[in-house]
Design a protein that fits this description.
The protein has about 325 residues and is mainly beta. It folds into 2 domains: about 35 residues, no CATH class; about 200 residues, Jelly Rolls. The protein is about 5% helix and about 40% strand. It is built from 2 helices and 22 strands. The strands form 4 sheets. Strands 7, 9, 10, 13, 18, 19, 20 and 22 form an 8-stranded antiparallel sheet that branches. Strands 8, 11, 12, 14, 15, 16, 17 and 21 form an 8-stranded antiparallel sheet that branches. Strands 1-2-3-4 form a 4-stranded mixed sheet, with no helix packed on it. A hairpin with a 2-residue loop joins strand 19 and strand 20. It is rod-shaped, with a radius of gyration of 38 Å. It starts with 7 loop residues before the first strand and ends in a 5-residue tail after the last strand.
């Protein structure tokens, strides 16, 4: 009969303390131990507990596992339905079906005009085919950071000028003056130092006039060398607020915002609120307008960079 090698064995509860390097077999748990003279050391790999992986309480055993876990987008929630994808931060599941993108045209309108296209011919100015009444427009002087600048000129007829508008008829039918949830931005500059003989108006008019205040409108106005004023005007009756902002030859951003029910108009210059009007807000059609007028035979210019409009909450 061949010789065989047998090691100490017994149940886990009864196996004796093994000498250093001495093996021992547990007959009930099927574990192999090796002694060090004081403690029986299991040769089985140690399993990390959930708590150890989540909190890293045992750095020697689980630091690498925790690092791997934290480097992955492990979601904190289980997807409730199939067909979902995990967000980049691993905190949620969202539908994998594209939403379609863009905005809903039944509730929103958005217009951007940078005047980079078109010509100086009335009805063909910019991408949206703006028209003018009066002396006309020419190409502006582009600068770094501004593309598509056009120049509205007053002409040399005393008491007249030019009105550039996004309209198709003399009395515009663009939108009502008390349209709610409307944001509009007009970016312009004086092409010359403010002069006592020049008047500038930018905003929304009812009538395309080349020389005077509109019968109805929501706009900014600067007369002569004076400051910019915020205007709401209905049936030739107006509310006017001095914004305290002087005319300059640098571009400024003029913003007009209506509230959720169209009962209040905010006027901003370069992102700063300058006036809020609740009186003489038009209730008839208006359209975006740029206007410059001369009181003499001297020609004055208004440079226009862009126009932007967004209306939300439409029902159509």
């Amino acid at each position: 009969m061949a010789n065989s090698l047998r090691i100490k064995r017994g149940t886990k509860a009864t196996i004796p303390t093994l000498a250093a390097g001495e093996p021992g077999w547990c007959t009930d748990t099927f574990e192999l131990f090796v002694g060090d003279g004081t403690t029986n050391r299991s040769t089985a790999p140690v399993k990390a507990t959930g708590a150890e992986l989540d909190t890293g309480t045992d750095d020697l055993k689980f630091a690498n596992a925790l690092a791997i876990k934290n480097s992955k987008n492990v979601p904190s929630v289980v997807p409730s339905t199939a067909g979902k994808v995990m967000t980049s931060d691993g905190t949620d599941w969202i539908s994998a079906v594209p939403s379609g993108g863009g905005f809903d045209p039944t509730t929103t309108i958005e217009i951007m005009e940078d005047f980079a296209g078109g010509s100086s011919t009335s009805g063909h100015i910019g991408e949206n085919n703006w028209i003018f009444v009066g002396a006309g427009v020419t190409s502006g002087v582009p600068t770094i950071g501004r593309v598509g600048v056009i120049r509205v000129r007053s002409g040399s007829v005393a008491g007249n000028g030019t009105c550039l508008g996004l309209v198709t008829i003399t009395a515009p039918g663009f939108m009502v003056g008390n349209q709610n949830n409307c944001i509009s931005i007009f970016s312009i500059r004086n092409s010359q130092i403010a002069n006592t003989d020049a008047t500038l108006r930018i905003g929304f008019f009812y009538n395309m006039t080349s020389a005077i205040d509109p019968v109805v409108g929501i706009y900014f106005r600067a007369i002569g060398t004076g400051n910019w004023f915020a205007i709401t005007r209905m049936s030739d009756v107006e509310t006017a607020t001095n914004t305290g902002i002087a005319q300059t030859t640098t571009f400024k951003q003029f913003k007009i915002v209506s509230n959720v029910d169209g009962t209040s108009i905010d006027f901003y210059i370069d992102g700063v609120l300058k006036a809020t009007h609740t009186t003489n807000i038009p209730t008839v059609s208006i359209a975006p307008i740029f206007q410059i007028v001369t009181a003499t035979t001297t020609i004055y210019y208004l440079d226009v960079d862009y126009f932007y409009l967004k209306v939300t909450g439409l029902t159509r």
